[in-house]
Design goal:
The chain has 253 residues and is α/β, with parallel strands linked by helices. Helix content is 42%, strand content 16%. Bound molecules: NADP nicotinamide-adenine-dinucleotide phosphate.
């Protein structure tokens, strides 16, 4: 009898936020943490522990893993789920890396790095979340893409292609996984974060920015609000969509 009870013990459900240490990731974690259990992902243990201490989540776990090692994601994440005896119900993929360079200078290893972090890691994580180890517990996925997946920009072609891959992936994945799992992406416009700080210190860029962004400067919390909406029941009839959150910039390029 004891054996039967143990066997059917319900596993605790979590939301995994990749790159919880990013400005946008941390804002997402802070919006979602009052709503449930969170897995903070990143590769800087000190930062992850700081964020864990700062949030108001009933249960928090840390998955410390460098997403450049895409081939190892399957085994590593599977062991993490088994060891903690948990299920990932929602996945927000926030990890991203960028290199701004004209295509003629773009080395293949730079492009591989960008695609590994921005796209292939997303694919490898999803594969685990659809396996038996996750007990068909997955119900919602949100990818953080970028406005430049849909618009041209000098030096940004490989980054844009990696985010474009995400946006296309969303559509077929939404068809493949419906009705059990909803899949959407959010495309932020330019925000001041570690990734873009150098641009926001450039007065010429800022002049153009203020002309283009009809609603002024955005903050990571603006992206987090959209993510929370897409993960909530308020959006239960929405799947397969790419949502621009950009202060009106994309209608005004
Ligand atoms: N800021 C913008 O204007 C903007 C616009 C559109 C889209 N986005 C997207 O928003 C997301 C968050 O970016 P952010 O602006 O908040 O910038 P950020 O603070 O620089 O965050 C980038 C995050 O990606 C993580 N990362 C990079 N390479 C990784 C790897 N190999 N393994 C694991 N994690 C890795 C970084 O981890 P570490 O902390 O360990 O370095 C960091 O947490 C990205 O997907 C980005 O493309 C940003």
């Amino acid at each position: 009898m004891t054996f039967v009870l143990l066997y059917f013990r319900m596993k605790t459900k979590y939301t995994l936020v990749s790159a919880s240490t990013s400005a946008i990731g941390e804002a997402i974690v802070s919006k979602l943490s009052p709503l449930g259990n969170i897995i903070l992902h990143g590769r800087n243990q000190e930062e992850l522990e700081r964020i864990a201490r700062s949030i108001n989540s009933s249960k928090t776990l840390i998955w410390n893993f460098d997403l450049l090692n895409v081939e190892e994601i399957g085994n590593n994440l599977t062991s993490f789920l088994n060891k903690n005896e948990i299920i990932i119900e929602q996945f927000v993929h926030c990890a991203g890396t960028i290199k701004i360079l004209p295509v003629k200078h773009f080395r293949l290893d730079f492009a591989r790095e960008i695609f590994n972090v921005n796209f292939f890691s997303a694919l490898e994580i999803i594969k685990v979340l659809l396996l038996k180890v996750n007990e068909k517990g997955l119900s919602n996925i949100v990818y953080i893409s970028a406005m430049f997946s849909k618009f041209g920009d000098k030096g940004n072609s490989v980054y844009a292609a990696s985010k474009g891959a995400i946006d296309s992936f969303v559509k077929s994945l939404a068809v493949e996984l419906a009705p059990k799992v909803r899949v959407n992406s959010v495309l932020p416009g330019g925000l001041r974060t570690r990734m873009t700080n150098h641009l926001f210190e450039d007065t010429e860029y800022m002049e153009k920015y203020h002309n283009k962004y009809l609603l002024g400067e955005g903050i990571p919390d603006d992206i987090a609000s959209m993510v929370r909406f897409l993960l909530s029941n308020e959006s239960k009839w929405i799947t397969g969509q790419n949502y621009m959150v950009d202060g009106g910039c994309s209608i005004h390029l």
